[in-house]
Amino acid sequence: MLWAVAMVVLAAGGAAAQPAAGSGSPGQAAGSGEQPPRGLQRWIDWQAGTLETRYRYIETSEGETTSNQQQHRQVIRLRLKLDPEGRYSVTGGAATGGSLTSGWDDLGIGRGDPTWDISLRQLFVNARPVNWVDGEVGGLDATRGESTEITSYDNDAFVTGGRVRLRRPREIFFDEITVTAGRLDPRSPTNVFRRFDELDDHNFTQVIGSRRFGDRVRASVEWASLDGISTLRQAVRVDVGAWMPLDWIRFEQYQRVEGDTGYGMAIAVERGLTDRLTVGGGFASIDDGNPTINGDRYLRGRRVFGLGQYALLPDLTLSVFYTQALEDDFVIPNQHRFEIVLSFDVRRALLGARR
């Protein structure tokens, strides 16, 4: 019911904010023939709203089937502006899933009973007193730079603490430096209100520097300390469409330089075959000592993976993912993993966003 009310109200506000034909797009200044946001969109920024279902099959390297089921996922994220310019705001994000690395619940088809563990996973205050710095405090999402969940943090991961972003490329070389301090713990509850007592329980520090080189290259470097163990990460993405039959190539790696030291990497490529169809794949190698906070599609081990995505409608997407791990000297929980995912972008459908 909360979902339905939120969507209808925001859609109505979005419709009220749409300019007349020929008057420019929302958020543009009147002096240039453009209109600023009006109605609810002046104060509420609806950032995400999706409904998804997926079939998932997982088999371990010992031949045990651990997942053969249909699942579901819902995500909604809103930002409430506290001033007309949006320099001060409160952002909240609710989603399904019962852990740091899980954003899905069981539908009751196949293994497992039906569950619905939706909770407010993110809630934070943001302040941007000047254009080149902003800060956030509360329940945050994880930041990765140009790294992905393969070698860094699961896409569903959250941090309880504070974050500062600096954007002074002329003075500090990087386009952006992000500093995060707080608590990142797989045992933490997903409900942000149950995590606020972790604000003074610090076990995670992260510094990321990101930079663009021309129009085609984006890179980032990271130092992170989790439970006293330091890890370095580097990643670069190159848009290569002008040189070869690919859209982009990404290489990422990490080095755990304290405690149980280790190394891991991944290389991935992607190609849009048509306006609707995109395919990609790659290779990843994650060492056995790496904490299981990276994407649960990958976890540990050496593996190849492939994916495809097809836009059935502008708001409805069908995607397929498969990974096959290579033989290793430790048990791999996802030796084989296959997924079919159907995603409906509710926000886009209700607000009438164009492709």
Describe the structure.
The longest helix is centred in the first third of the chain and has 16 residues. The chain has one domain: Porin, CATH 2.40.160. It is globular and about 55 Å long. It contains 3 helices and 17 strands. The N terminus is likely disordered.
Number of structurally distinct domains: 1
Bin the strand percentage: over 45%
Number of helices: 3
Q: Architecture, according to CATH?
A: Beta Barrel
Report on the biggest sheet: 16 strands, antiparallel, barrel
What is the topological layout?
Elements: H1 2-17, E1 44-59, E2 65-81, E3 88-95, E4 105-110, E5 119-130, E6 133-141, E7 158-166, H2 169-172, E8 176-183, E9 204-213, E10 217-226, E11 229-239, E12 248-256, E13 262-272, E14 277-286, E15 301-313, E16 316-325, E17 336-345, H3 346-351
Antiparallel strand pairs: 1-2, 1-17, 2-3, 2-4, 3-5, 5-6, 6-7, 7-8, 8-9, 9-10, 10-11, 11-12, 12-13, 13-14, 14-15, 15-16, 16-17
